[in-house]
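Lab notebook, page 48
Experiment: co-folding of the full assembly
Goal: obtain a model of how the components sit together before planning crosslinking
Operator: M.T.
Materials (sequences as entered):
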Amino acid sequence: MTTVYQEKDTLAPPPAERKNIFGWMLKNLFNSWYNSILTIVAAYIIFVLVRGVAGWVVTKARWEVVPANYRLFLVGQYPSMIPGQEDFIWRVWLAVYLLAAITGLAWGIWVKKREFVSWVVLLFPPLVGSSPYVTNVGLKLVGKLYGVTDVYQFPGFSAKAWALMWGLSATGLAFWALGRAFGRRLARFAVTMLLLYFPLAILIIGGFGEQGWFQAIPTRFWGGLLLSLILTIVGIVMSFPLGVLLALGRQSKLPILHSLSVVYIEFIRGVPLISLLFMAQVMLPLFLPPNVVIDRVLRAMVAIIMFAAAYLAENVRGGLQAIPQGQYEAAYAIGLSGFQTMTYIILPQALRTVIPVLVSQFIALFKDTTLVAIVGLLDLLGIAQGVIANPKYIGTQREVFTFISVFYFVFTYAMSYASRRLEKALGVGER
Amino acid sequence: MSDNNNPIIICRDVHKWYGDFHVLKGVSMEVMRGEVIVIFGPSGSGKSTFIRTINRLEDHQRGQIIVDGTELTHDVRNIEKIRMETGMVFQQFNLFPHLTVMQNITLAPIQVRKWPKEKAEAKAIELLKRVGIPEQANKYPGQLSGGQQQRVAIARALAMEPKIMLFDEPTSALDPEMIKEVLDVMEELAASGMTMLVVTHEMGFARAVADRMFFFDKGQIVESGTPEQIFHNPQEDRTKLFLSQILTH
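Observation: model returned without errors.
Model output:
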């Protein structure tokens, strides 16, 4: 052992490494002859792909289809594309403003650190607003490479739209300050608002009654991103409790409850979502008396919820099985009832371990809602198909689908980022 | 009920099967208030199973178990009543990893006994002082050593103010240097007059604290008596063999 200590003084320093980009490339991309070949081949393939796509973007693509249909993409025909009727788009804005206020408030109360992501969230609306200009700069640059001078340029937003977007940020900031100042005293209020937000938003958007500011707007006018998000969030919010109950039912020792849960889960999982949607749209009316009409969007929602709940139940069951028997025994031994044991001991632990899986499932659910386009609802994809079918914009599939892909990507990425934060905050895998 | 001459636990001819395997073959035992009972025996002898029948973590299929005047049957109310009166400490601690030490201890008093939070927390602080770790109240179980976790588990069981404490090999999962801190807490508890049933191989603890000892083998009580009788004058060959095996190293 002593020799080791003696040698320590005379140990050579580690060989010098080139720490720049070339050193990195040498180490990771060209460290053997076959890796070098792979690198070169891959680089060539990427080059060909990018060249082709970029060339199409600046020379052939007819981007005017996108700004001409912004509103359709976002809210579909909500509500008045019908000539001569009042425009209710302000109700959607109201719901969005409410969301900004609640997000700001919650952030001010609970998030203590100031991070990069806070700025992204705060400045999200103006960032969206400035996206055409950023895109234009990119288009011009790429255009230069291809020698195209009259590259397409997106129109900017109107002053009114800008004001609304900055207003969102300002609202968020104001409520953030409020949350900061009053902190815990507003906590209960904030939780209530978070729970109430979604039903409230649906009420604002869907409306009630025959006339007035909040007159009911039939769901056939809901569309675009608005409908996609509503279907997703209703799907998540409603399938969650149902799925947890099914998982518990499947774990249950009561034979009837157990077999009902198993039959439900296995039946639904054995059927594709699209066939459930078709059944809800086409088959359901056969069973109902002719004078009973159930809303088409509602029918799609029910199909989505039923579908999501079965999968969620299986995921939650995985979490339940990961809980050691000793946790049940300890809970029973201190006198907790079966219900209390589930509520305070088992479910909190089980759900925490399955957060990553649940978020993956919710992301999949968000993308699965596009299937409602096939049964004729005008969600983001349905609207996209509608726009393409417009004689004025025939042959613009690529442009339209590229544009809606960006939307899906932004939302799914935000969801997976949020889940990673949630996992960290709850200490999954640590405690 | 408070008659001190009545046994607090009465077991008569308790039988249990796991499938075809006969784990308990007619165990009878009476425990008086304030008595400390040590149960020992080779692994697979049914001693843990027996102690777990007393708060119905395992059900018995024949015989009778009466705890503090209430008979254990399939009646859920009786089971809940008895579980409120008995605390249990496990080999693997079984603390709730998602709750702090304080929440672990106050959960049952608040939810089951319906105590106000302040009362439960005051009780928890008092118990944490008693087991010697008041400064750990706001940590999570995962941040504590094994010995500290087991002491929290004892505090958690005591928070319900039980009349009986059951210990199922409480030191078997601990590193040697932590065993003493747990045994010290148990000795203090025994001195305070708590009725205790302890499954353990810690013969030093048994000698110092136990009022009576029961030797289990193959699902039966082979021999019982005071520590004096068991250690110095065992009657049965199996007891002698087992003691010689665990005491000679």
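Interpretation: Chain A touches chain B through 20 residues (CB under 8 Å).
Next step: discuss with group before ordering constructs.
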